[in-house]
Design brief:
Blueprint: H1 2-11, E1 19-23, H2 27-30, H3 39-49, E2 53-56, H4 58-64, E3 73-77, E4 79-80, E5 92-93, H5 97-102, E6 107-113, H6 119-133, E7 140-145, H7 154-166, E8 171-174, H8 180-189, E9 194-197, H9 205-218, E10 222-224, H10 227-230, H11 235-247
Parallel strand pairs: 1-2, 1-10, 2-3, 3-6, 6-7, 7-8, 8-9, 9-10
Antiparallel strand pairs: 4-5
Helix pairs in contact: 3-11, 7-8, 8-9, 9-11
């Protein structure tokens, strides 16, 4: 367990044991859209703003490795959405545990979008990976998303996150329910670190900072905010605002 503890301590930092993860993994789904069309530039920006972890794919990691300092954790996404495919409603496996170990990743991430075709197959793969990861002390971040028509319902979020906890994920990434009290119930029901997703850009940083403060007040252990950051005019500045809210 020494290796797992060491890796998790790189992911959840400071006395508060919190994580500011920058997800730069949207390229397979959305394509090289503005904001992530220059991998090294956006990586340097979020690190300058205070991100202590990156959520990235194997190919993206290779492209930006020279600008990632040793202090920044790498969460390697080993499932990815094929955005050009008509069947690309669920993520597909793209790499293995061995890939993550060879690339010295601090954790792996896999997503399950419940309510979409193929959810049970990707769920089974995730469960197998969690079981296999025990041999290598490699933490698993499970992105557990409720059905689309219930994306921000606390009960559905708690259920999706609880499935991730039940199968042994070290941390769960999921949606924020929108208010402190309802998400506090999610945190209490799912006793592993919860990292909230940012969702679509809201056009200003105020709503993002408010969401971060509310999530922390409810007991969230971290945030993984992508589009709200890299679609902003100044990603480094928005990341710095998030950092201040998260680690205040």
């Amino acid at each position: 367990m020494v290796g797992r503890t060491r890796r998790l301590n790189r992911l959840f930092v400071s006395e508060q044991k919190r994580c500011l993860m920058s997800p730069l993994d949207h390229g397979g789904w959305l394509g090289p859209v503005k904001g992530i069309d220059r991998p090294q530039a956006i990586t340097e920006a979020v690190i300058a703003g205070g991100a202590n972890a990156l959520l990235i794919s194997p190919g993206f990691y290779k492209a930006v490795a020279p600008v990632i300092p040793p202090s920044v954790a790498v969460v390697l996404r080993i499932s990815l959405t094929a955005g050009l495919s008509q069947q690309g409603t669920q993520e597909s496996p793209i790499a293995s545990l061995e890939t993550a170990l060879r690339m010295a990743a601090d954790a792996i991430a896999i997503s399950v979008f419940f309510g979409r075709a193929g959810d049970i197959e990707i769920y089974r793969w995730l469960a197998d990976l969690i079981d296999a990861s025990q041999r290598y002390d490699l933490p698993v971040v499970a992105e557990m998303m409720p059905p689309g028509d219930r994306s921000y319902e606390a009960e559905a979020i708690a259920h999706a996150a609880r499935i991730g906890m039940e199968i042994g994920a070290d941390a769960v990434k999921t949606n924020f329910s929108g208010d402190v009290e309802s998400f506090r119930q999610v945190v209490q029901a799912v006793p592993v670190p919860l990292i909230i997703a940012g969702g679509p850009s809201q056009g200003d940083s105020h709503s993002t900072v408010t969401m971060v403060k509310d999530a922390v007040a409810a007991g969230a252990a971290g945030v993984a905010i992508g589009r709200r950051v890299w679609q902003a005019a100044d990603p480094a500045a928005v990341t710095a605002e998030i950092h201040q809210a998260l680690f205040a």
